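tool_call predict_complex ligand=alpha-D-glucopyranose
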Amino acid sequence: MKIVFVSSEAAPYAKTGGLADVASALPKALAEAGHEVKVFLPLYRTIKERFPHLALRVAGRPEAFSVWEDREASVPVYFIEHDYFFNRGHLYCTAAGDDPENGDRFAFFSRSVLEALRAIDFSPEIIHTHDWQTAALFGYKKFVMGDDPFFRGTKSVFTIHNLAYQGLFDPGVLGRIGLPKRLFRAEDLEFFGRVNFLKAGILYADAVTTVSPRYAREIQTPEFGCGLDGLLRARRASIRGILNGVDDSMWNPADDAMIAAPFGPDDLAGKKKCKKALLEAFGFAPSVPELPVIGMVSRLVEQKGLDVLVDALDALSLLGIRIIIVGRGDPSIERQLIMALNRFPQNLGLRITYDDALARKVFAGSDFFLIPSRYEPCGLTQMYSQKYGAVPIVRAVGGLDDTVEEFRPETGEGTGFKFQDSDSGALVEAVRRALGAWKNPKWMSMLRRNGMRRDFSWKRSAGAYLGLYRELLG
Ligand code: ADP
Ligand code: GLC
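tool_result ok
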């Protein structure tokens, strides 16, 4: 199959969250299964600076964009260059908030991908796009290029990685980006007086997927539906939940140059060294008896439930634990955490930063890994932490519920601890259960090994996507 992947981020080129990991790993898994895959990204300034070897593929199209190509990547990656829109120091937002031209920027990107496919003469069987940033593509395909024989055999898939980000813009955006103004009605893209880009993906793609089976069900309820649950229920038959995976070549403690020592399920000596290095990096002295370390690596946004953690700190500080947090995001959440650090310096370690190497040190050096999310479409860090022997403690929502199994000491099965309610009492109770296991070294090593041995490889998910593509192509 000829498959085109369109995303606003992909590792290692540009990353703000899990979407980048998925947009890099899934195309690789599809290519390994024998398909011809091409990935499209905007050429952001940071990519230009960090990847000087990119080759110009198509220069100065009439609409004034160029296409660059990474010929050294294992799966061909193409970049849409448009200096006005993408030669900026950010992907989506600055300290002042969202880039006010985001609607124009990402609509331009989406449309340019369709033009670029024609320019490089690659007529795909599948176009698969991700999140609101690339959803307008389906509007162009349906209403602007509807009769184009070049795309006649092309089926489309839209993946929702996060329903809360919908791409909402003033009605004037439709005229500016060249989509019919008549789409400004409730049956199409209108949403509470604004234009909703995400709706273009939900309404016009041939199939809609989301990144875990539980989230696929949750988004059809008012609690998790972000105002779109009615529409999603109407599209129920075309919605599928396909769990994300882990790229084992990128996330493997036995082969990770950024951690203090390698380790694996059958040899955990290296993990002890990683813990020691992590404690040192955060200025904690070694302690007798050894205290458990609970790690967190997260975007600091409301979704991730850090306020619930902050509420729980009074109780947690009495339990003889250390919590190490690496994260960046919403300034008000950053401030809450800095204040918490001042109150609980014995218990808390904090770095307000985005740092992949440091994140890996947290996965490798922690005993437990906490994710108290309000909602979680899939979540990757609970899978990475399992791979790195850090036992997850998670709120049982979305993909967290689908990928963490509650530990049952009677049978020795399970990989972590889950709590139901989004409140500090429930969180503390789950941490207490985890500490029960900490006191029993046999249980701890069972838990770690169960997690480290779990198969989260992309092969299975890639197979599910391929099954869906085939269904659409009949
Ligand atoms: P989301 O996409 O909602 O942020 P995921 O769990 O799917 O959540 O993916 C988050 C990804 O971003 C993981 O690869 C995680 O390691 C990485 N990450 C998040 N915050 C940081 C940070 N402060 N420093 C380094 N990596 C981070
Ligand atoms: C989003 C979600 C996260 C998911 C990621 C990749 O950022 O918040 O849960 O893992 O996309 O699909």
